[in-house]
């Protein structure tokens, strides 16, 4: 009996060391989403300011459009911004191009002074969004390209990734799944550039819940995750057919199971 207990303790120790080596030196990235762009408050045109600027400029001209009339205007506004396109009641309405003094530019559909419909918004940094807008926000289907080369194609809600979408990182990684208020949420697949990939649950931008991590060498872990690491019940399968099943934790003393 003592010999059996010693053998069990030895195999558990080996399993712990192997598991610690695997997840201690390589594991899912827990911070795979970063701030990509600043608040988009610069995009929104304040209705009263535009009306005042355009009204003042129209007073110096011979032509005065009637209320509700659509007309084309090409103007430098008194605040330094520039607009060329269609207007109604002293507000951008229809197709138009708007340059802000900070270098941002929008080309697309307008409705009552706000970006609404299809359009392209670009930043001086080189970032660009092409897709649907609503009430001045990126909202609906669209593609965002970051200055560092990261791209996101999918659903947006008020300037945040929200719904299903695919983010391709400049380093070769890729996430395909659900998003909520700008972060990975619910179910998704994250693939590293070396071919390893995770399929399972996410919470607040990190791997959390039930999921499986596959290695290109044939190894596999399936079980529960917390903050990007195995936590609780789980099984690690080695490519040679051996496996460790039991409880997983960041604390080696809490690891227990069978090898």
From TrEMBL:
SMART domains assigned: MORN (SM00698)
One term under GO cellular component: membrane
InterPro entries, alphabetized: MORN (IPR003409)
KW Repeat (keyword) present: yes
Keywords: Repeat
Keyword Repeat attributed: yes
Name of the featured protein: Putative ovule protein
């Amino acid at each position: 009996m003592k010999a059996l207990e010693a053998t069990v303790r030895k195999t558990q120790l080996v399993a712990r060391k192997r598991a610690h080596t695997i997840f201690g030196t390589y594991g899912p990235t827990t911070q795979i989403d970063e701030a990509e762009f600043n608040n988009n408050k610069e995009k929104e045109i304040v209705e009263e300011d535009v009306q005042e600027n355009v009204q003042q400029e129209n007073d110096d001209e011979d032509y005065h459009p009637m209320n509700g009339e659509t007309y084309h205007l090409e103007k430098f506004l008194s605040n330094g911004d520039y607009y060329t396109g269609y207007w109604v009641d002293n507000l951008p309405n229809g197709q138009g191009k708007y340059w802000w003094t900070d270098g941002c530019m929008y080309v697309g559909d307008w409705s009552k002074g706000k970006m609404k419909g299809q359009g392209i918004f670009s930043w001086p940094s080189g970032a660009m969004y092409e897709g649907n807008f609503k009430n001045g926000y990126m909202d609906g289907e669209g593609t965002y390209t970051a200055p560092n080369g990261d791209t996101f194609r999918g659903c947006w809600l008020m300037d945040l990734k929200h719904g299903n979408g695919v983010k391709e990182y400049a380093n070769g990684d890729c996430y395909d799944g659900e998003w909520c208020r700008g972060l990975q949420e619910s179910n998704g697949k994250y693939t590293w550039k070396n071919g390893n990939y995770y399929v399972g649950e996410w919470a607040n931008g990190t791997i959390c819940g039930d999921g499986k991590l596959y290695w290109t060498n044939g190894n596999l872990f399936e079980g529960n995750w917390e903050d990007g690491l195995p936590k609780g019940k789980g099984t690690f399968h080695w490519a040679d057919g051996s496996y460790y099943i039991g409880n997983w934790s960041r604390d080696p003393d809490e690891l227990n199971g069978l090898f």
